[in-house]
Known about the structure:
The structure holds two protein chains of two kinds.
Chain A (H helix, E strand, L loop, with lengths): L6 H18 L1 H20 L8 E6 L3 H5 L2 H5 L2 E6 L2 H9 L2 E6 L2 E6 L11 E3 L3 E4 L4 H7 L6 E4 L5 H19 L28 H31 L1 H6 L5 H26 L7 H25 L3 H21 L8 H4 L4 H13 L7 H27 L2
Parallel strand pairs in A: 1-2, 1-6
Antiparallel strand pairs in A: 3-4, 3-5, 6-7
Helix pairs in contact in A: 1-10, 2-8, 8-10, 8-11, 8-12, 8-14, 10-11, 10-15, 11-12, 11-14, 11-15, 14-15
Chain B lengths: L5 E10 L2 E11 L4 E5 L6 H8 L7 E6 L2 E2 L5 H4 L2 E4 L11 H11 L7 H7 L15 H12 L6 E5 L7 H17 L2 E6 L2 H7 L2 E6 L2 E6 L1 H8 L3 E8 L2 E8 L5 H10 L3 E7 L3 H9 L6
Parallel strand pairs in B: 3-8, 3-9, 6-7, 7-8
Antiparallel strand pairs in B: 1-2, 1-4, 4-5, 9-10, 11-12, 11-13
Helix pairs in contact in B: 5-6
Amino acid sequence: MTRPVSRARIIGAIVRKDVAEYGRDRLWAFLTLMVLVVAVALYWVLPDDVDESIGVGVSGLDPAALTGLESAEAEGLALVGFAAADDLEAVVAGDADAWSINGDAVVIGHDAGIAPPDGAEQRNVSIGLAFPVDFLAATTEGRRTEVIVYLDAGVPDEIRFAASGLVRELAFAVAGAGLPVSTSDPDQVFVVLGEDRVGDQVTARESFRPIFVFLILLMEMFVMASLIAKELQDRTVTAVLVTPATVGDVLTAKGIAGALSGMAQAVVVLVAIDSLSPQPLLILTLVLLGAVMISGTAMLAGSTGKDFMSTLFYGMVYMIPLMIPAFAALFPGTASAWIRALPSYPLVDGLVDVGTYGAGWGDTLGELGALVAWCVALFAAGWVVLKRKVRTL
Amino acid sequence: MTAAAIEVEDVSFSYGEVEAVKGISFDVAPGEILGFLGPNGAGKSTTIKILTGQLPPKSGRARVLGTDVTTDDPVMQAQIGVCFEEKNLYESMSGRENLRFFASLFGIRDVDTEVLLRRVGLADRAGDRVAKYSKGMRQRLMMARTLVNTPKVLFLDEPTDGLDPVSSQAIRALINQEAERGAAVLLTTHDMHEADELSDRVAFINDGRLHAIDTPENLKLEHGKRSVKVRIRDGERVTEQTVSLEDAAAGEELKAAVSAAGLMTIHTEEATLESIFIEMTGRGLEG
């Protein structure tokens, strides 16, 4: 009597075959390697610090008047004195650069073709306050006067209000008067919930970290989808299914091969960008769940695609909505409800929470639960579609 | 009496509204080669798909090695070998790797790939990727893969289709060896010479129906017309005379023809499987 072969041995054999095939597909091997290298290189090129101060250029005032404004500096406003309003306007408009040397601002137009002075430090100026030359006299005489506020187009509304306040503060400072603030104003107590990142803002590197990890997993989706489509197209899967291997064995093996491959690459990237801390096990769990979810998506894309191009097309169809949460993570604030409903959101959100804000297992239970649910749903959908496809070959 | 390795009872199958197999019944004994003869679209490949568990029959019953084919029994599947019409091999893997992979699916760890590849004449190309193989080499590798588990039942779907005579002959020799070993062979083909040469019995299938099933000899005797063609020279003229052996006066006619002074050649004429197929189904085998 012939003894049946164990399922584990069959699945193991298919996984080994899939991994070997993966490595031999030169196009995908090259693309995978390229994405790995580019992601890691890009990460280290991105700035690791954040300039939290806003450069404010001031013209028409005695530079000595600016040095006494410690409160402005404390509020994150870096004041730079300009000799002329025209220079200030050109710098804010982006037509010229401002360089600071020994406390003096040197403005060099982009068309001038002049190198900045040795030892000069470039100053970013987003807001310009052009005071009229008779500002002091007008203020002391009680005449109305006009201050022009130049704003970079990208300056948000709240900064415009801050600029308005700054003009008033400067006016009082120049006039030698105190601010008209009553001591009866209520005390304000700021309570920061979660990790206070003031002075330690999220850097570009940190913002892009989940994107890099997710990019690797998405690359894996394309590779797996392509391998699945090829197996269906060449009908090699039918040759496998007339052996003791079942459809379930084939699908399980595909899932394992895809998840392992995606996980391995993601770990390589995480190690290379030094991002496995502070909760390596939690990060690895999130990535593993993400890899499983992506494997299910690869089954869907591979089942619908008939050749390389159509697999690429369907891969893109699945990839675009999955990428949105990763890009949403670049921008602070709460993501829209529809973005939160996307399958990749709990993965990206979890990675951001753990990697950037030091969240632990307890803090990420919601993300883990949602991710498990999406894993089950997408893997089951991929399983059903692929099984149906195999049956109709 | 030896139990049949393949038993098919009144099996039908439809692709949607199209009836591909219509209530066919036959069996194949161990060591027997049954040639399934029919044109493209006759239902040959569908029958193999049903028997190998790829398609469930719409009605009827089919058993392989005593196991119902719808049960997806891994023990049964471990004892069958299937050679597909399409060359579904892993192209990025070598011939040797293909065999090792499929052997591992049967739980065979110590498969002697060199022996298998030598049997199909591919030993010197064992390490080459299948993508570099010619069509004939791929077909021979398909046969080697079919034999990787030393199957008790072989399903061979057009195994020599489109091959050169040398490759075809090599594969036919292999099929004979397997039958001599005791394997039951179901061979689909639309090559009547191949069916005639290899098969212990042939089954005519057309439009999903079995029209006849018997040994090639019996089919020829039963359905063919035996005759003798005699060519006689008469001066400058050559005459040709056909004597039907079915006629009562055949003996006398033949005697007279053979005794003729200008006798040049005598040829016996037998019906071919193809002519019988056409006679029975009204359709050629190449269609």
